[in-house]
Structure formats: C-alpha cells, structure tokens
Amino acid sequence: MADIDALRARFARTLEAARGPAAGPDPVPYADNLLARWQEPQRRYHTVEHLTAVLDRVDVLEKYATDPDVVRLAAWFHDAVYLPDRSENEERSARLAERALAEAGVPAAKTAEVARLVRLTVGHDPADDDPDGQVLCDADLAILASPPSVYAAYTTAVREEYHFVPSDAFRTGRAAILRRLLDLPRLFRTPYGAAEWEATARYNLAAELEMLSPGPHDPS
Question: How far apart are CA 74 and CA 64, in angstroms?
C-alpha cells in the first residue's frame, strides 16, 4: 500500500523546490486534492501505487533531467484526471496543472513545462533533445519491464479499468496500443532505461500481444 503521508510530504518538498519555500500558499491542500484524485474508485492501475512507482523511477533517472523537480510535478499531474471512458484525460490533467501550479506560486515558465510534459504522455515519444520528457516517459513506461507476475497484475488492472468495454473490442484496442509501442524505435530514451528496461519490456509487450491475437482454434 502507498504511504499517503509520505506522498504528501514528497509533494510539498517538490512544490517548494520548484517555486521556493515562501513563494506561495501551503502545499498540503494541493497535495490532498491530487491524492484524492489518485484514489478515485474507477482506478485500478492508475492509482497512488502507480504514482509512487513513477516518482520512484524519476528519482532513479533524475541525473538525466534538466529540472528533476519539474519532472516530478509532471508525474504528480500526469494522470490526475483519469476517466477510462474519456479520451482527453492527458489534456484535462495538463489544464489542471496549469491552474493549480499557477495558483500555488510556481513560475509561469515551470508551470508551462509541467503541462507540456503531461501532454507528452499521450504518445510517450519525446524528442531526442528533450531530456525531461525522456525521464517522465521512461518512468511512466517502466511498468512494461516488470517481472512476469507484476506485469500480469498490471494487465489485469488495466482490463478492470476498462470493464465496460466488451472483450473483443478491448482485445482489438489493447493490441493496437501494444503494436504502437512496439513500433517505436525505442521504448526508453534515457541510457538507464535503454540498458535496464528495453529488452524486458519488448518481451512482455510481444508476449501480451501474442496472447491477445486469435489462434487457429479461435474462429474470431
């Protein structure tokens, strides 16, 4: 289980690092608003556990980032709005970041960068000259390089979030996402991600795609 008190403290440290300790209102209400969002009942994978994992991976990758605290703020907001039956979650999350961070005292340039990074998670395809985007996207996709049991739990949780989608439609849509990811020249752009996660993630994606594909015994 995620440690909510620890997460609240992490957000406060990150916000104060991005804006300066005395540059705005108390961070706690902003942290609590985000944490409430990450604990909404429709979530099965995009939970506080996922948030914690992404933040932990940003810590691993921070040496590659230009502004690690901006990347951490983007991690906090990247799935802050999450409704599985809606397609504009990243855009709505980015707009939430723009409103909340401006109010919380984060400078305009850093607020805009957080929002840009959140929007980048639509396709997870950062440019070669975008180290902060590379760190956030690598941290978000690192679940794909999990051991088999963890990867299986991840795919089960994703299916539960989309429980309202019929099985055939889900298989088709999920397979399309997997193919898009496998078609990327590189899943991971940081040196650490490329070395530690790329091969395992591609193996997991290909294995899941094979499981979703109709076999000779399947008339569909």
Answer: 16
Rounded to whole angstroms, the Cα distance separating 41 from 176 reads 27
What predicted TM-score, i.e. pTM, was given to this entire model? 0.94
Q: What is the dihedral of CA 50, 84, 162, 45, to 10 degrees?
A: 10
For 81-111, what is each residue's pLDDT tens digit?
A: 999 998 899 999 999 999 999 999 999 999 9
3-state class (DSSP) for residue 104: coil
C-beta separation of 112 from 168 below 8 A: no
Spatial CA neighbour of 126 closest among 193, 73, 52: 193
Tell me the residue length of the chain. Answer: 220
Helix (H) and strand (E) counts for the chain? 11, 0
User: pLDDT, tens digit, for every residue of 170-195?
Assistant: 999 999 999 999 999 999 999 999 99
